[in-house]
Automatic annotation (TrEMBL):
This is Alpha/beta hydrolase family. The lineage of its organism: Bacteria, Pseudomonadati, Pseudomonadota, Gammaproteobacteria, Enterobacterales. It comes from Cedecea lapagei. One of its GO terms (molecular function) is hydrolase activity. Keywords: Hydrolase. It comes from the Bacteria.
Amino acid sequence: MIHGGSKDREAGLKYRHLMASLGFGTTAFDCIGHGETGGELSHSSLIGRTEQARAVAEHLGSQLTGCMGVSMGAYNALQLSKSVPLRSLILMVPGVYHPSAYQVNFGPEFSAIIRQPCSWAESDAWQIVADFSGNILIISAAEDRVIPEAIPQRLYDSASGKGKQALLTVADADHNSVWQMLQRNPALYDKTCRLLVECLTEA
């Protein structure tokens, strides 16, 4: 599991417990500049986060079959799929970025790139998801004010269709309240669990 740009691995703990209850083990880590890993965020970047995730993946070896990325972490999960054989991707409130932002350290230059109007529209994420042959589950928040609403749908539309794919929109949820809204809606919670199992189970 890869956390978002302003979080750490603790943010995904509820989902890790959920995955365990569904029969799936998980691994999470703090990217450089977050949580217990330490370091300076300004010394990291999107590509740095992907390389950190790849190091964890290489340590896990064949045990690793899927990746869940949240917000910025979803873009890292997509990038990871280019070099690590994954059968499943779970992209939650997914952020995607212009390729020119990928190797730039976090800071003013990075912010200037991603704040360009609709810079995300020229992301390489669309091609990456089109090239991915595994299962994909995209979870979006209906009231997200951080991620443009067009991104989850375009990711879904760009998917290759070679594996199972699903787009789940969580009603009344904003960027940071997907879990809370799932807890208030038992039917939607059950549907989410079913989609997670389908995505993480080999076709």
